[in-house]
Amino acid sequence: MKLTLKVWRQNNKNDEGRFVDYAAKDVSPDMSFLEMLDVVNIDLVKKGETPIVFDHDCREGICGSCGMMINGRAHGPGRGIATCQLHMRSFNDGDEITIEPWRAKAFPVLKDLMVDRTSFERIMRAGGYTSAKTGGIPDGNTILIPKPVADEAFDAAACIGCGACVAACPNSSAMLFVGAKVSQLALLPQGQAERETRVTRMVAQMDEEKFGSCSNTYACEAECPKGISVTHIARLNREFVSAQF
Amino acid sequence: MNPFFRFINSSVGKKVLMSLTGIFLAIFLIEHLAGNLLLLKNDNGEAFNGFAKFMGGNPVVRILEVGLLSLVLLHIFNGTRLWLGNRSARDKGYGAYRLDENTTLQSRMMKISAALVFVFLTVHMKKFWVPARFQGEHDIASLVYYTFQQPFYVIFYLAAFFILGYHLRHGFQSAFQTMGFRTKRYQSLIEFVAVLFWLVLPLGFAVIPLYIYFFGGSPVAVVQ
Q1: CB contact (8 A) between residue A98 and residue B97
Q2: pLDDT over 50 at B221, yes or no
Q3: pLDDT score of B56
Q4: What is the mean pLDDT of residues A197-205?
Q5: pLDDT of residue A132
Q6: Within 10 A of B130 (CB to CB), how many other CB atoms are there?
Q7: pLDDT for the residue B41
Q8: Contact A237 B180 (CB under 8 A)
Q9: What is the average per-residue pLDDT within A85-100?
Q10: In this complex, is the C-beta atom of A243 within 8 Å of any C-beta atom belonging to chain B?
Q11: Which of A94, A154, B92, B212 is the most exposed place for a label (fewest CB within 10 A)?
Q12: What are the residue boundaries of the structural domains of chain A, listed by start?
């Protein structure tokens, strides 16, 4: 396959940034999107140019490191996948592909396609944990959790914090991320003690980071690589309101 | 900060305010439509004028009217605040952005439909509410019959009802999501009730100008 890549290049936080066109030749349809970028980067290094910088780690869709806007879609076309799980067979020979970093004030671009997502980290530090020492593993069935509840908490816990929800949202809202994190602990007995302070502090931190407000377009759910449901946003709203009164 | 203001200025609080004001306004539409349907009674607008007189003369209704206008202004003010905040949350836009592949048209059109509903509301209040409240017009029914003899107003109102329905199509279910009621259990119930608001209600409103235009209203209107 031969492709034309329109890649966002930006030297650092303060650089204006611009799109640069690259020709990607000999792309195999079986390559992952990141492998395709690796091949392009090898060529760039050979030519003495700076390779395209992008975040990546596990390359199997569980770490949440990779993430870029591909042809206007977070993690590219397809549902329920991270960028590393996107394969070149999703494109046609001769296609032009636009590749950009996540865009949000709370996710400043560090270089090229790499953004600073420590705003998520600060939200987690504001309350995304249980502060009590839980000790060793309790015996089975000492803490009873109905299976459907455990399943729902697990679905929320599947969030890998990649930031696709923010990137896809027209308002750069982080509600799906925060919703998943709040939901996970609100559903489980271990999260009850700090239930109200957690949601209050996490929402306050989310606002402080200048993420937008949710307007329920549900673009986040559609782009989430883990398919996290917007019902967790509804739960976050419920938790927040009941914590205030 | 006062806990109430802290809540109302938080991102979730602003949305809850948007939802509550929106739902109250939607509920008001039911009362409005019920009153309007009296225009279909072929009695020279007597029933409707009687209703309008009661609404204009009753002190409780007048106080509620002030409340309703405040809700409209609050809904607009808060919506503008949200829009500006959301706009600044993404300082640099995308070169390519395919939001259309992930979202419904009505959800993307909320700001435009809101602006158009506002334009309609201004014209509508100038046309009927201002004469009734401030210019001593008692025969609102004749004014309605006269207005809807004109094709321009019939089309203008039909377009407005369509846009209002479109605004409510996203807005109604969105309000319940924001207030946290849109769970798996209640989702289908909310969507069912939403149809009454975004489809049945605007259709009900649309019947009135159409009926008057095609089947004529009171003979009083012709005299005027």
Answers
A1: no
A2: no
A3: 87
A4: 97
A5: 78
A6: 12
A7: 86
A8: yes
A9: 98
A10: no
A11: A94
A12: 3-110, 117-132+143-244
Are A172 and B90 in contact (CB < 8 Å)?
yes
Contacts of B103 in chain A (CB under 8 A): 170, 217-219, 222
pLDDT, tens digit (0-9, with 9 covering 90-100), for B97-155: 999 999 999 999 999 999 999 999 999 999 999 999 999 888 999 999 999 999 999 99
Cβ <8 Å between B11 and A241: no
Secondary structure element (H or E) that encloses residue A169, with its range: none
Q: Is the pLDDT of residue B220 over 50?
A: no
CB pairs under 8 A between A and B: 137
**Residue in A closest to B185 by C-alpha:** A231
A73 touches chain B (CB under 8 A): yes
Query: Which pLDDT score, from 0 to 100, does residue B224 have?
Result: 41
Interface of A with B in 116-145 (CB under 8 A): none
Quote the crossing angle between the two packed helices B46-57 and B11-36, to the nearest 10°.
140
Give the gap in angstroms from C-alpha A203 to the nearest C-alpha of chain B.
Answer: 8
Q: What is the pLDDT of residues A111-137, one digit of tens each?
A: 999 999 999 999 999 999 999 777 788
- Count of alpha carbons within 13 angstroms of residue B113, beta-carbon side: 19
Among left, alpha and beta (phi > 0; psi -120 to 50; other), residue B171 is: alpha
Question: What is the 3-state secondary structure of B163-190?
Answer: HHHHHHHHHHHHHHHHCCCCCCCCHHHH
CATH code reported for the domain at A3-110: 3.10.20.30
Contacts of B13 in chain A (CB under 8 A): 244
Distance from the Cα of A213 to chain B's closest Cα (Å) equals 5
> What are the structural domains, with CATH classification, of chain B?
3-90+104-223 (1.20.1300.10)
Through-space distance between the first and last CA atoms of chain B, rounded to whole angstroms = 58
CATH of A117-132+143-244, picked from 1.10.1060.10, 1.10.8.60, 3.30.379.10, 3.30.9.10, is 1.10.1060.10
Task: Show the DSSP H helices in chain A as ranges.
Answer: 33-46, 118-127, 147-157, 164-168, 175-187, 195-208, 219-223, 231-244
Q: Which residue of A has its CA nearest to B107?
A: A217
- Tokens of residue B67, six digits: 């409340």
A154-189 tens-digit pLDDT: 999 999 999 999 999 999 999 999 999 999 999 999
Q: Can you tell me the ipTM of this complex? A: 0.92
| Residues of chain A positioned with their CB less than 8 A from the CB of B15 | 213-215, 237
And the tokens for A238?
A: 């419920």
Whether A244 and B184 lie within 8 Å, measured CB to CB: no
